[in-house]
Specification:
mainly beta
């Protein structure tokens, strides 16, 4: 009697596994394992692998009363643009300069930083910074900056840069610098 129970249980288990696999496969056959970059696709009752891509559903009717296709236009983004127009030594001083900064952009420029550098003939350099006040589009300001120490000589190079640390996104990043020779 015990042999009958064991045989019945094993038969029932095998039959269950076979039935489960048959139902999991469905009427379309088993779903394939696809290589990396491909997905299993069911088309016309059978599975196959193909490259992953987007497909639009096909339509049988075309809407002829739709609006004409839109044309692409260049985006108009308003950005500020610091431009250093020039610099000169302040009369009666050795280490103070007046630098002209203008917002050439189409948007207001927030408060920024003007950085001045003094390069000696032996390639040693000194620097200092000054605040650029907020500038409206087209507005210019004269910024006074003092760069110590006072050991300037004729022929030393001076470089003035607005937005030296690139904190501001500008419409033109190539006009932020002005260089001159100390006279």
């Amino acid at each position: 009697m015990k042999m009958f129970n064991v045989t019945t249980l094993v038969s029932a288990a095998v039959l269950s596994v076979v039935a489960f696999n048959a139902m999991a496969a469905g009427s379309n056959g088993p779903k394939p394992r696809c290589p990396l970059g491909q997905i299993a696709v069911l088309e016309q009752g059978s599975w196959h692998c193909e490259e992953a891509k987007l497909k639009a559903k096909e339509t049988t009717q075309r809407n002829t009363s739709a609006a004409p296709a839109a044309t692409l236009q260049k985006a108009k983004i308003k950005l500020p643009d610091y431009a250093v127009l020039g610099a000169a030594r302040k009369m009666g001083t050795t280490d103070t300069f007046v630098v002209q900064v203008k917002n050439m952009g189409t948007a207001g420029a927030p408060q920024g930083v003007l950085f001045g550098q003094h390069y000696l003939k032996n390639n040693q350099s000194w620097g200092a910074d000054a605040i650029i006040p907020p500038l409206a589009p087209g507005q210019a300001k004269a910024i006074t900056i003092t760069i110590p120490p006072t050991n300037y000589e004729r022929g030393d190079r001076m470089v003035f840069t607005a937005d030296y640390f690139k904190q501001l996104v500008e419409s033109n990043e190539n006009n932020n610098k002005y260089a001159m020779t100390y006279k």
